[in-house]
Structures are given as structure tokens and as C-alpha cells.
Amino acid sequence: MGVAKKFAVLLCAEDSDYVKKRYGGYYGVFVEMLAEEGETWDFFRVANGEFPDDDEIGGFDGFVITGSCSDAHGNDVWICRLVSLLKKLDSLKKKVLGICFGHQILSRALGGKTGRSTTGWDIGVRTINFSSELFSSLNIPTTLSIIECHQDEVWEHPPNAEVIAWSEKTGVEMFRHGDHMMGIQGHPEYTKDILSHLIDRLTQRCYIEESHGEELKGKLETVQPDKDAWKKLCTSFLKGRL
């Protein structure tokens, strides 16, 4: 028998009460999508300053960076420390999957540029288009629907990275750096109920108008993200099956 693979989720946001109660926190959401039998999964609350020690990093086969309310172009102490960690993981050729904020901070660490989207918030289910045949072996269509919730984006992808997906709203929906690092702007791990509760939080905090929030939730009833395809894509990348 081979050695069991070990992965870690780098948590970049506080758990909402709803996600904590329904899924056991965002860690639980990611484990539900990505974990397979025989694997070990851990987490580090990097937004609270909890990082893996240097001598721990080698024991992990891969890392997942979550979304966040913070700006990937910001200079909070934990964000700068995360950038340094990602540079180290790149040098070690560790598998890294970045989601939303994780996609943006990964781009920054690799030399790309991030910032506010010039076209404002993207909230809802969006169709993205693959510009690469990277996933052809998985029999995944050339377009997939994914849940989005962001107001920042990757402005310029890292110099040695390849843009592998785009949408009408966002030019860099996904990028790949080597065969060990990949960023996804959308949220393959989200369910529609998570997004609906997040829309309520954005409304309560006056990030979006209440009427707009109700409109967004109404649209959610008529569309479905391609969750099974995203699960297949993300697990295949992280476990080196592409």
C-alpha cells in the first residue's frame, strides 16, 4: 500500500454562522468536494496568523487557498506572509489550488497583478469558457457554469502562467502555472444556499442594494452550477490525475 496523501486548506476567511452550522465551516465545504478515501486533510487559519511551519510543509502533497473578504492586493501582515508561503510552495513544486481570493493571491505571489474589477461585482452563476485542452482527458465540456462572488480580479496573469478560462465578465477566470499551481476565480465548492446567505450578508453590510440582492437570489432559482464537473476537475488537478 502507498503512503496516504495529505492535504491542507489555507482558510482566509472567518466562517459565517450559517456555513459553520450547516457544513462545519468552510473547511468542511472544501473537504466535502475534494477529499477521497484514505487521505488526510488539515487546515490552517492563515487569516488569523496560523501558518504551517517550514518543517511541516514537506509532509503535504497539496494545498487549497480559500476565498476571503480581504483584498489580495492588500498588505496586511497575514497576506504578505501568505504571499511568501506561496512562493515557497512554488519552489517546492507543491500542488496548490487557489479559489477566488486564493486565485488572486496566487497570481500575485507568482508575479501577476490584481485589483478591483472595472465592471463591478460579479455575483451569481456564470458560464466560463475554456481556452485550453488541459481537461479534455476528463471529458469535460468546453464551457461550464460556476458560482461567482467577487469584486476583485486578476488584472494581469503571472508571466509564466497560461490563462485557461475566461468569461464575458472576467478575462482571467482560470490560470495554470506549470503543472502544480492553478487558480479559479469562481467558487466550485459553493452551493446555491451558501451564495444566497452570502448575498444576505452583503446586503446587510451595504455592499449591495437590497433590491439588487433580491434580484440576484431570484435568478439563482433558474440556474444550476456544474458542481459534479468542477469536483472532477479540481480533484484531478490536485491529485495529479490530469
Automatic annotation (TrEMBL):
* Pfam families linked: GATase
**SUPFAM superfamilies from the xrefs?**
Class I glutamine amidotransferase-like (SSF52317)
* Domain Glutamine amidotransferase positions: 59-192
Q: In which pathway does it act?
A: Secondary metabolite biosynthesis
Q: Which family does it belong to?
A: Belongs to the peptidase C26 family.
Quote the protein name from its UniProt record.
Glutamine amidotransferase domain-containing protein
Q: Top-down, what is the taxonomic lineage of the species of origin?
A: Eukaryota, Viridiplantae, Streptophyta, Embryophyta, Tracheophyta
